Amino acid sequence: MNIRDYLSARKREVEKALDSFMLPEQGVFTDHIAAMRYSLFVGGKRIRPILCLAAAEAVTDDAATRDALLPVACAIECIHTYSLIHDDLPAMDNDDLRRGKPTNHKKYGEAAAILAGDGLLTYAFELLSRPASALPDGSRLRIIQLIARAAGPEGMVGGQFLDISNENRDYPFELLKTIHKSKTGALIACSVLSGAIGAGADAVQEEKLREYGILIGLAFQIVDDLLDATATTTQLGKTAGSDRARGKATYPAFFGIEATKEKARETVEAAKTALSSFSNRAQPLIDLADYICMRTH
Amino acid sequence: MNIRDYLSARKREVEKALDSFMLPEQGVFTDHIAAMRYSLFVGGKRIRPILCLAAAEAVTDDAATRDALLPVACAIECIHTYSLIHDDLPAMDNDDLRRGKPTNHKKYGEAAAILAGDGLLTYAFELLSRPASALPDGSRLRIIQLIARAAGPEGMVGGQFLDISNENRDYPFELLKTIHKSKTGALIACSVLSGAIGAGADAVQEEKLREYGILIGLAFQIVDDLLDATATTTQLGKTAGSDRARGKATYPAFFGIEATKEKARETVEAAKTALSSFSNRAQPLIDLADYICMRTH
User: Domain holding B39: CATH number?
Assistant: First the structure.
């Protein structure tokens, strides 16, 4: 299966699972649920949940184990979606568009958007701790711990704090790396690692997939920086050039476009190399690495 | 031990644990951590974590089991604190004062306050899933599930959404009950139940403590409504009369002050009755029920 077919099949699978796991729009909380569902289903490539499932595939061909990871994959997507809703708020990036549609607060108002984010974040942990899960208790607790760390004060939230509080400031490349690693890299890396742990990876497999996850997270952010600098608003579905407009440090700002492209390619190659000891069941992860890099061309 | 001494001893214990479990103000995320710590340590009676520990005491006299519940008790306090930070935001209740001090966004700005809330909520789940926990994996997963449900879209966050979106509207008493139960009652009830589960309660004990928790949560909210209607801003440490000013429905608005006081007393008595089959180790919970009601006098 080529990577585009693979991605669209997995995307459909993830979206079907998201729809079944997310609360239905009914009952007394229906308006709140509608606001959460709006951002959850407004679009998105579902890269994080797909990475989680693809990492599980690389470890095992047992379909039941992979299915047991669907709630984990969906929880990660809920967390990613909440982070976009909060990042877009007037007090943060103040964005009107996301994926070509009005941002959550533009559609539902600021209070409802803050709460939609809070609800999605909390619901993610409800999904992760569901009684019906087929994953062993120990693996689930490890996955919850990993995800909470990746999304928390020393991960995604901390990274967003650093990003916001250093706008329009000159800062060293070391800080840019920290921001990227915590704000974007951590959740991507933990998507891969969660899939590995849930699929019962041994210590060596886990270490290799951890390495792949960290590198792919870095590549993803470098490419995002590049796209913000080079693509149009229509291509992005969000405001292009907004990093520069906000005085945000980026890879292109430090190294220029060409050297940044080279850096993205190198990082993707390193991610692929980390998987050299895996069977051909790791092919989707390898293709995903290339796909992430391709977005720059 | 009388209840005031009990409460101040437990409060010290909880605050010491909170300080040891919360990230230290150092490293690259120090400003973000400072904003979380500010609201976590600006004051508060620590009723929820104390309820958790007192429920465990009612079930077991094993000190190690009770100590193993400290991270759970602290996680609940982190979630309560995050909810206050977000409730106070300009887009929500727009409060300047909380516990007699500037609210988080007044001190750190709106973006930092949103992220301090997000960070505390996420960190709570990190605490709950810590590898070093002495609680059995199954109990921990049940507790995580309970807390996520109580704090989530059909619990605290959903309740806050209903509260905000029904300001200045006439609505039936049924909806007021739903708002109170979800916004405030759910987290209080789950504080008690988490302590019970963590301490290894049997099915009957669990059911009785569940009943006590729900009733105490209701009593707490009725008393809060009363205090908002009758106390001064100095007594509350937050703006008094703000419910009425915002056109929020409350128990006193439906029933008047005296009938509401009677309702609070009845609810507290029912909560105490639920514990009649417990040994005298449930005395702190019984005294806590009375203490909650006393706040109105």
Answer: 1.10.600.10
Query: Which of left, alpha, beta for A214 (phi over 0: left; psi -120 to 50: alpha)?
Result: alpha
Chain B residue closest to A128 (CA)?
A: B145
Q: A33 in contact with B at a CB cutoff of 8 Å?
A: yes
Q: Count how many domains chain A has.
A: 1
How far is residue A35's CA from residue B192's CA, in Å, rounded to a whole number? Answer: 31
**Distance in angstroms (rounded) separating the CA atoms of residues B168 and B67:** 45
Q: Among candidates A220, A121, A98, which has minimal Cα distance to B121?
A: A121
Q: Does B34 touch chain A (CB under 8 A)?
A: no
**Does residue A128 belong to the interface with chain B, where contact is any CB pair within 8 Å?**
yes
Full residue range of the structural domain in which residue A188 is found: 3-294
Tell me the one-letter amino acid at B219: A
Q: At what angle do helices B186-198 and B47-59 cross, to 10 degrees?
A: 30
Predicted structure pTM score? 0.96
What is the rounded CA–CA span in Å between residue A167 and residue A63?
A: 46
Cβ neighbors of B150 (< 8 A, separation 6 or more) are B156, B186, B187, B189, B190
Predicted confidence (pLDDT) per residue in B199-220, tens digit: 999 999 999 999 999 999 999 9
Burial class (CB in 10 A: 0-12, 13-18, 19+), A45: middle
CA of A260 to nearest chain B CA: how many angstroms apart? 25
Shortest CA distance from B129: residue in chain A: A145
Smallest CA–CA separation between B78 and chain A, in Å?
13
Summarised one tens digit per residue, pLDDT across range B68-122 is 999 999 999 999 999 999 999 999 999 999 989 999 999 999 999 999 999 999 9
CA neighbor of A296 nearest in space, from A260, A249, A266: A260
- Sequence-ordered alpha helix ranges (H) in chain B: 3-21, 30-40, 47-59, 63-68, 70-88, 104-108, 110-128, 137-151, 156-165, 173-180, 186-198, 203-230, 233-236, 242-245, 251-255, 257-273, 283-294
- Give A190-217 pLDDT, tens digit per residue: 999 999 999 999 999 999 999 999 999 9
Cα B256 to Cα B226: distance, rounded to the nearest angstrom: 9
Inform me whether the pLDDT recorded for A46 exceeds 60. yes
Least confident range of A43-47, A133-137, A245-249, B17-21: A245-249
B28/A175 CB distance under 8 A: yes
